[in-house]
Each structure stands twice: as C-alpha cells, then as structure tokens.
Amino acid sequence: MGGADPVADYAGVAHKALIELEGRPLLARVAQALHEAGAARVGVSCNHPAVAALARDLGLEVLPAAAGPSQSVFEGAQALGFPLLVTTADHALLQPEWVTRFLDDIPAGTDVAALVAPKTAVEAAAPTTRRTYLKLADGWWSGCNLFWLGREQALGAVAFWRRLEAERKRPWKMARILGLGMLLKYVTGALSLSGAARRLGELAGVEARVVATPYGLAAVDVDKPADLDLVRELTGGR
Question: Of 27, 144, 157, 225, which sits with the fewest C-beta atoms within 10 Å of its C-beta?
Fold first, then answer.
C-alpha cells in the first residue's frame, strides 16, 4: 500500500487504509472479514508508519511494500505461504460470506483464481456506482479485488502480471505479450470469461480460473471520492 491519494485527502487522513467507516478504519474492517472467513494469518503490505502501527494493534503481520503491486504479492506469498488470498485495504464492504463463497467455488486443481461480478449484479446492488467493466462474449464483468493463489505454481501468474505491469505505459508491448489471437477474439466479441482465464493461464504457465460471484457489492472498492460517498451511503452514512 502506498501513501496518501485523492481519497485519503478527501477523507482528511494520511492514508486510505485509515479512513473510518461506521467508526472503524477500513483496514480493521477488511481484517475482521478475513478472520471471520477463517483466515488464521493476515499480512499487510505497507510502508506507511501509521498503517503499520494500526496493523500491529490489530494483530496483523506487517510486510514491507515492494515497488509495485505484483512484487508485493510475490514477496507476501514468500512470507505467508500458500494458499494465499489477496485483497486490498480499500475493500470497504468486504463480507466473510463473499470470501467463503469464492473459496468454495474455485475448481479443484486451480493454481490461481480471480473473483468477478456481472454488471447486472453490481448495478442491482449499487445503482449509482460507476465501475470499470470488461465486455466479453458472455456479458460485462467487473473485478472484485479478490485473488487466490493456491500453491507455489501460482507465482507464475504473478511473474506474468509483473511483465504486464512493467509495460503498462506501452500498450503495444502489452499486446505482444498477450498475443494477436487473444486480442482479435476480444475485439470481435468472441472472447468469453472462461476463455480469457484459460488463455491467460496458458501464457503464465498455470491453471487459472475466473469465479463469478452473485454479490454485486463485492465489486465496490474505494478508488475515488465518489466511491467513499457511496459506501458511506450504503452503510447508513456512519
């Protein structure tokens, strides 16, 4: 987790993880949901002293944040082991049943899995939210900031993510990594959710799956001030 951002500034705190919702910091809410879902250990990747202090007060393990998200996940997996569930401190509405349903729905033999929600479920749960959706052959989908790394082989997906992350400002190089066939299927509307996961898994050398959730609010995190207003509204303004 990095330093202050526009959402932290909007909330008047030093870091987004310290924003209070219903009288509790977002980090504390996320940690509680993970514990209630059965997590025995919860690690927090951060370099901000106030966030680190809060994490220790909550009994969480503090891990130094790396240069980017993918490297932080890689180092977190090395420290915490497998299986590993990855989420973000701004997942303000996270509920334990979302996590347990996700874990129950992951097919056997999967190395890495990601949770997504259909646009219909997101808009039904939060009609005013503005999210980024990926249009595929079987609908519109939003990511839910929940990822599962089942075993050490999943680090192949993290390494692949790191390659894409390094080229994020050079889309032509990202396109070369993903391959012309996959891009053509996406552009022509022929790429399905399962097909995208399967192809990305092949490129990363892992068994990858995408799991759909019926919980539309699982796609709502706090990326911008409007998101914070929304989650405050959804929790009664507390």
Answer: 225
